[in-house]
Structures are given as structure tokens and as C-alpha cells.
Amino acid sequence: DWNSGNVIAEQVARIREQVGSGRVICGLSGGVDSAVAAAIVHEAVGDQLVCIFVDHGLLRKNEREQVENDYVASTGVRLVTIDAREQFLNALAGVSDPEQKRKIIGREFIRSFEAAEKALVAEAAADGEPIRFLVQGTLYPDVVESGGGTGTANIKSHHNVGGLPEDLQFELVEPLRTLFKDEVRAIGRELGLPEVIVGRQPFPGPGLGIRIVGEVTADRLEILQDADAIAREELTRAGLDQEIWQCPVVLLADVRSVGVQGDGRTYGHPIVLRPVSSEDAMTADWTRLPYDVLARISNRITNEVREVNRVVLDVTSKPPGTIEWE
Ligand code: XMP
């Protein structure tokens, strides 16, 4: 019968056998899968592993700190963070079309990851211990979906900016290949990873970039990060995390409406709450959140986020509405 301790022990042995004394790299996305995959590999080969984390500025509030501080403290993983915020903002300037945004974010992600990867590869080669392995957090459902091929990177094409192009220079290490999501979370907990990472709900690779309807700017990102953090905090406090598949918070950046806040009339932006219940994200229903929780979220956002003067609730199922607004 299934036991996370056994799975970890098995994988650790398998990884040691596969990589020997070779060096390994892994991209961390901030999500559950890459975090757990890297933690198992680190358990197996320690500092032969180095992780790369690209901060593209489209992350949720405090996500970078959670990886840099909490994750590193609990795993001891060697981490290189790339600050690519400027690069992404520049590339996204003037762009409102959702698919265009996805393309740009995907392209810039690969660009910055590969630059970091090259630098590490060169450094390791100069040391006489080349990097020969790449960790991927491929899960069992991904393997099935892509026809069960082995040894290559199988990433759903329109998803996962965190996924990389098939990189033939590396042999893949895939410690989660036989596992389902809830098993991955159990293993993460067994390895002592922070709950903020292990319990994380699905979050799209392009991040907040596709939750700002309109052009992505630094100011707008900050507004959305603040509103999103409040919504998540209140949902967690109300004990609703298990009930909700995910709850996108969306900034309608090109829409303004009149409000009264504090002493005067304001002309601010609406924030949309999109709580959904789902099994697999293919279909979804809007979650019937308790009114008092909605009221608290609305009050706090309009009090604490100056540029937002209206909070609206999306009550559309999928289909016809997708979960994300873009
Ligand atoms: P939709 O909006 O298509 O979303 O109903 C279904 C699920 O996929 C996530 N999603 C994405 N994930 N890159 C990702 O990695 C993307 O471009 C992307 N678009 C949507 C969404 O959060 C939901 O869980």
C-alpha cells in the first residue's frame, strides 16, 4: 500500500543510480511539482543539484520570498534567482492581446532560463564536473496524456510556461512520473516543505500577466498582487481552500467606474473574483462562497487597495466561461 516514505526512499535510490556523481539542474516555477521534484533530487544527491528560479514579476505577492527563504530553508537546495522583471515588463509593453501575452511570456521565460542555464553549465564545466541532468516535475497524468514516451520533456504545449523546450543536451530526471497530484503533495509534506508551497492551488505559467485585462504594467501588477493577497488570505482564514479549485483575481485595468472612498469621489478599477470548483479544470462551476466571506474580501480590498473601488463576483460556469479571463 502507498506510503510517502517508501516512495521517497525508492526514488532517492533510483536517482542516485541514474546520476552517480553527475551534476543536475532544475527550474523552479514556484509551483508544487517542481518544488517537490527538486526536493527529492536534493535528498538524493545534495549539492550536485542547483535550481534556477526566474522572477518574471508576474508572480503573486511574496512568492519569490517563499521560494528564496522558506523553500531554501526547509530543503537546503542551492538556488540561483534570476531577476527578469524589467525584461518581462519591457517585452510586454503595449500588449493587450491574451495570446500575444502568452507567447511573449513563454519566449522571455525560455530566454532568461537558458541564459542562466548556460552560465551554470559553463561554470560547472570549468570545474571539471559537467551538468548532465535536468529535473522535470512530470506527473503520471502528464505521461499518460502525452502517450507515455520516456526520456523527453513532455509539456502540454499551451500550458506551463515553466516547461522548457526539449533540451537534448540533458538527460531527464523525473522523480514524479508515477505519481498523482495528491501523492506529490503528501511527499512534499513528508519532506518538510512549507505548506504555502505544497498546498498551492493551480496557478497559470503566465501568472498575473493573464489576470490583468489590458496592458501589463508595474503599477497594475502591484494593485493586483495586493488584491489577490487579500482574497487568498480571507479564503484561507475561512477554511475554504479545500472547497475551491482555484480563485483567480482579475484586474479590469481598462475599465473605470465612479466610487466614493474616504472623503471623496474616486474613479477606480474593478476587481473580479473568480472562485471555481472543479475536478480537473476541464469543466468548472462557480463556488457558492458564503456572503460574509465575500463581504470581508470586498471591504478589505476597497479599503486597502486605493486604486480599486469595486469588487465583482463572476458567476459563470465553465463552459461557457473559461476559468481564467484571458
Ligand atoms: P482555462 O482558463 O482554460 O484554464 O479554463 C484551465 C486551467 O489551466 C490554467 N491555465 C494555464 N496554465 N498556462 C498554464 O500553465 C496557461 O497559459 C494557462 N491558461 C490557463 C488555469 O489556471 C486553469 O487551472
UniProtKB/TrEMBL annotation:
GO CC field: cytosol
Keyword terms of this UniProt record: ATP-binding, Glutamine amidotransferase, GMP biosynthesis, Ligase, Nucleotide-binding, Purine biosynthesis
Coiled-coil ranges from the UniProt annotation: none
Keyword rRNA-binding: no
Range of the intact protein held here: 202 to 527 of 527
Described purpose of this protein according to its UniProt entry: Catalyzes the synthesis of GMP from XMP.
Residues that, per the record, bind ATP: 29-35
Stretches assigned to the GMPS ATP-PPase domain: 2-200
Naturally occurring in which organism (per UniProt): Microbacterium pygmaeum
Pathway(s) per entry: Purine metabolism; GMP biosynthesis; GMP from XMP (L-Gln route): step 1/1
EC number(s) on file: 6.3.5.2
The protein, known as: GMP synthase [glutamine-hydrolyzing]
Catalytic activity: XMP + L-glutamine + ATP + H2O = GMP + L-glutamate + AMP + diphosphate + 2 H(+)
Oligomeric form and interacting partners: Homodimer.
GO molecular function annotation: ATP binding; GMP synthase activity
Gene that encodes the chain: guaA
